[in-house]
Amino acid sequence: MTNEILVQADHICKYFKLGGGRMLHAVEDVNLTIHRGETLGLVGESGCGKSTLGRTMMGIYTPTKGRLIYGGKEVDLTSKKQRFDFAKKAQIIFQDPYASLDPRMTVGSIIAEGMEIHGMYDAAKRQERVAELLDIVGLNREHANRFPHEFSGGQRQRIGIARALAIEPEFIVCDEPISALDVSIQAQVINLLHELQVKMGLTYLFIAHDLNIVKYISDRIAVMYLGSVVELATSDELYANTLHPYSRALLSAVPIPDPEKEAEKKRQIIEGDVPSPINKPKGCAFSSRCPLACDACRQSAPQLREAAPGHFVACHLVK
Ligand code: SF4
Prior knowledge:
This protein is of the alpha/beta class. The strands form two sheets. It has an eight-stranded mixed sheet with strand order 6-7-8-3-9-10-12-11, with helices on both faces. The protein has a four-stranded antiparallel sheet with strand order 2-1-4-5. It is globular, with a radius of gyration of 20 Å.
């Protein structure tokens, strides 16, 4: 990881209009920076806005408010040209390797498509690159002529990774890339992503709900709740000195491999469901489920602030 900031979310909000004049506030005023070569883990329950934020940070969605800054320059996603140019730098690996590959295309065409769109190489060189990429992700060159349904889930995710790498991006949003895979395959895909990062100097935003996986692969971790980042710290610091009540509850749900320690561990169950992003609680968004909530929590929303060097938290009770 370098000190250079590659990607920055600057007060990004993403809202979706619903029927009846209602508005879904999926992402609310998020500020995040990702350094070149870094993996930033982004965790939270489903529906917390992490995938929407990931898609906004790689240009699939245009922010409703705020700016996406890449390499020090604002990316205007309303401009077709800027969106197209940015798509060459930022790619995504999707959660579901079954749904994300066109079943009518051969693996070779799927991997070559991005190169064709961006006018990279002639047809013969593209074929050569497809073969190289299949090698890199641990598949056989002969697989280029087959169709996605002929592969297992883990192999399909490798095809998705080869497709993302084809146009030589710098930044990859990994949107729960292993959630749909068997546990036995998950570690292989994580190891592959880690190896590729080291070899190619890639920068990742790694979205997950499994805190075990995020800890292993991330340099820093941001915890999201109901559209906002509530805690951000280095991976080691977050696990050793968890400050936000929501992060503590998420971490207490992570199983410890030692059965004795696991039996002794006190779990913090979060009561209730995540409130609707259409109708958020007043004050702190976590106040309807937080065991420590007091009157002040229900009146004003805490801001994300630096509680210790490099450790940010949004909670009134953390001094
Ligand atoms: Fe809980 Fe209050 Fe902190 Fe929100 S501000 S997390 S409700 S203690």
